[in-house]
UniProtKB/TrEMBL annotation, chain A:
Gene: EXOS4
Family: Belongs to the RNase PH family.
Residue stretches making up the Exoribonuclease phosphorolytic domain: 33-117, 120-184
Gene Ontology BP terms: nuclear mRNA surveillance; poly(A)-dependent snoRNA 3'-end processing; rRNA catabolic process; rRNA processing; U4 snRNA 3'-end processing
Protein name: Exosome complex component RRP41
Automatic annotation (TrEMBL), chain B:
Cellular location(s): Cytoplasm; Nucleus, Nucleolus
Record-linked InterPro entries: ExoRNase_PH_dom1 (IPR001247), ExoRNase_PH_dom2 (IPR015847), ExoRNase_PH_dom2_sf (IPR036345), Exosome_comp_Rrp42_subfam (IPR050590), PNPase/RNase_PH_dom_sf (IPR027408), Ribosomal_Su5_D2-typ_SF (IPR020568), Rrp43 (IPR033196)
The name this protein goes by in its record: Exosome complex component RRP43
Entry keyword set: Acetylation, Cytoplasm, Exosome, Nucleus, RNA-binding, rRNA processing
Signal peptide span: none
Gene this protein is translated from: LOC122898907
Length: 210, 276
C-alpha cells in the first residue's frame, strides 16, 4: 500500500512537501509486537536561499528524521502491524520557515492516504515570541531574527501534545501564551486537513460509484 | 477480473490492447499523456519548473553561483545538471547513494545540454579568466511513472527559460564582484531541445511515452532529442531489441511532431509568465 500527498500551504508555511509511506518487512530489525516507523527527511538543494550541498545525511536532516519518527510513533497504531516497517519519506522543495510543521502536516495526510491506521490527525505549527507578542507560524526571516521558537505537534481531538521543542530562552510566564498561539494555529490546520480529507474521500467514492 | 488477469499475465494483458492499437488507459499508440507545466513556483531557486507527464512528476530547480572559469576555457561558465530519483518517487528506489538510473539520467541531461547548445557557455562568463556563473540544475523526480527522460528535459528547458541572473560588475579597484540584484536579465536560450521516448514491445511494436509498467514489460527503449530546426541533438538507445532504419525514421518524424506540441505549450507558459 502506498500513499502520497503533496501540499503547498502558501497560507501557513510555503514548504512544499510530498512523500510516500509503505509497509514492508525488514527482517533484521523487525519488532515482534509492533511496526517499525522509519522517517527520512530530505531537502532539495534549491530549497534555501544558499544552495544546500547535501540534500540528506547531514546532521539537521537526521535530527529532523528522528523528530518526525518520534512524532509519528505517538500517532500511528503500530500494534496493528507487527513485524512490518512503515517508511515515511519527506522532501522539502522550498523552505521558508516552519519546515518541521509543514513536514508533519504533509506526513499526516500521506499516512492517511496510505490507509495506515492512526490515533488522530497530527497537526503542527511553529510559534515564537517577538516584542512581547506571541506569533504563530514563523517565516524564515522571523526565525532568523533569533528570538525564542517553539515547534508543537498536536493530536487535536484529545488535545495531547505529540512533540514540543523549544529553542532559545523564554521566560516561563510567557510560555503559556506562546503554547496557546501554537495550539490554536495547529487546530486551524486540523480544520483545514479534515475538510480536505473529507472532500477527497467524497470525490473518490463518487468515482468508485458508491 | 481484468485486474486479476493483469497481475498474473501482464504481458498478455498489454498485448490485447496493443493489438487494438491503443494503451490500456485509452491513448493511441502515438499519443502522449496529458502534459502540464508550471514555471517559477519555487521562489528560493533562481529558476524553477514543475512538469507533469501523466503521473510522472518532475521538478527542476536552478541555482546560480559564482566560480572561477575552467583553465582551458577561461571565457566559459558551467552548467551542472543532476537528476535525483529519491525513494519517495517509486517503490523501486531505495535510499542510499544515487542508483544507476539516476546516474544515467544525469549523464543524458548533460549530453543534451552539451550537444544542443541550449545556452552558450560564453554567456555565463562575467570576467574572462576570473569569474563566471555556474548553473546547478537539480532535477528531482516526485512521482515515477515512466518516461523520466522526456519529463526531465522538458523541466530543464522550462526552468532555464525562467532563470534570471542579476547584473554583475567587477569593481576595478578592489577586484571584487558587485551584484546588482535590482537589474536581472533572462538567459539567452538558443535552442529548445525536446525529448521523445519510445518503448519497443516484442521486438516489433513501438509505443510512445511508456508508463512505468510499460517500461518494465518493454523489450527495449529509445529516446530521441530534437530541436526546432529538425536537428538531432541526442539519440539514446540503451541496448534492448534491435530496430530497423525505417522504424528509426518513423520515430524521428514522431519526435518532430512532439517538438511542435511542446514548443507551443512552452510559448504559452512563457507568455503568461513574463511581465506585460
Amino acid at each position: 500500500a502506498g500513499g502520497r500527498c503533496s501540499g503547498s500551504w502558501r497560507a501557513m508555511s510555503p514548504a512544499y512537501v510530498p512523500f510516500l509511506p509503505q509497509i514492508r518487512g525488514s527482517r533484521a530489525r523487525a519488532l515482534p509486537d509492533r511496526a517499525l516507523v522509519n522517517c527520512q527527511y530530505s531537502s532539495a538543494t534549491f530549497s534555501t536561499g544558499e544552495r544546500k550541498r547535501r540534500p540528506h545525511g547531514d546532521r539537521k536532516s537526521c535530527e529532523m528524521g528522528l523528530q518526525l519518527r518520534q512524532t509519528f510513533e505517538a500517532a500511528i497504531l503500530t500494534q496493528l502491524h507487527p513485524r512490518s516497517q512503515i517508511d515515511i519519506y519527506v522532501q522539502v522543495l522550498q523552505a521558508d520557515g516552519g519546515t518541521y510543521a509543514a513536514c508533519v502536516n504533509a506526513a499526516t495526510l500521506a499516512v492517511l492516504d496510505a490507509g495506515v491506521p492512526m490515533r488522530d490527525f497530527v497537526c503542527a505549527c511553529s510559534a515564537g515570541f517577538v516584542d512581547s507578542t506571541a506569533l504563530a507560524d514563523l517565516s524564515h526571516v522571523e526565525e532568523a531574527a533569533g528570538g525564542p521558537q517553539l515547534a508543537l505537534a498536536l493530536l487535536p481531538a484529545s488535545g495531547q501534545i505529540a512533540l514540543l521543542e523549544m529553542d532559545a530562552r523564554l521566560h516561563e510566564d510567557h510560555l503559556e501564551s506562546v503554547l496557546e498561539a501554537a495550539a490554536r494555529a495547529a487546530r486551524d490546520v486540523h480544520t483545514l486537513l479534515d475538510r480536505v480529507v473529507r472532500q477527497h474521500v467524497r470525490e473518490a467514492s463518487v468515482l468508485l460509484g458508491d | 477480473m481484468a485486474a486479476g488477469f493483469k497481475t498474473v499475465e501482464p504481458l498478455e494483458y498489454y498485448r490485447r490492447f496493443l493489438k487494438e492499437n491503443c494503451h490500456p488507459d485509452g491513448r493511441e499508440l502515438g499519443e502522449f499523456r496529458t502534459t502540464t507545466v508550471n514555471i517559477g513556483s519555487i521562489s528560493t531557486a533562481d529558476g524553477s519548473a514543475l512538469v507533469k507527464l501523466g503521473n510522472t512528476t518532475v521538478i527542476c530547480g536552478i541555482k546560480a553561483e559564482f566560480a572561477a572559469p575552467p583553465t582551458d576555457a577561461p571565457d566559459k561558465g558551467y552548467v551542472v545538471p543532476n537528476v535525483d530519483l529519491p525513494p519517495l518517487c517509486s517503490l523501486r528506489f531505495r535510499s542510499g547513494p544515487p542508483r544507476e538510473e539516476a546516474q544515467v539520467a544525469s549523464q543524458f541531461i548533460a549530453d543534451v545540454i552539451e550537444n544542443s547548445q541550449i545556452i552558450q557557455k560564453e554567456d555565463l562568463c562575467i570576467s574572462p579568466g576570473k569569474l563566471s556563473w555556474v548553473l546547478y540544475c537539480d532535477i528531482i523526480c516526485l512521482d515515477y511513472d515512466g518516461n523520466i527522460l522526456d519529463a526531465c528535459t522538458f523541466a530543464l528547458l522550462a526552468a532555464l527559460e525562467n532563470v534570471q541572473l542579476p547584473e554583475v560588475t567587477i569593481n576595478e579597484e578592489t577586484g571584487l564582484a558587485e551584484v546588482n540584484l535590482k537589474k536581472k536579465s533572462y538567459l539567452n536560450i538558443r535552442t529548445h531541445p525536446v525529448a521523445t521516448s519510445f518503448a519497443v514491445f516484442d521486438d516489433t511494436l513501438l509505443i510512445v511515452d511508456p508508463t512505468g509498467e510499460e517500461e518494465h514489460l518493454a523489450t527495449g527503449t529509445l529516446t530521441v532529442v530534437m530541436d526546432e530546426e529538425g536537428k538531432l541533438c541526442c539519440l539514446h538507445k540503451p541496448g534492448g531489441s534491435g530496430l530497423t532504419g525505417a522504424k528509426l525514421q518513423d520515430c524521428m518524424s514522431r519526435a518532430v511532431t512532439r517538438h511542435k506540441e511542446v514548443k507551443k505549450m512552452m510559448d504559452e507558459v512563457i507568455k503568461s509568465m513574463k511581465p506585460k
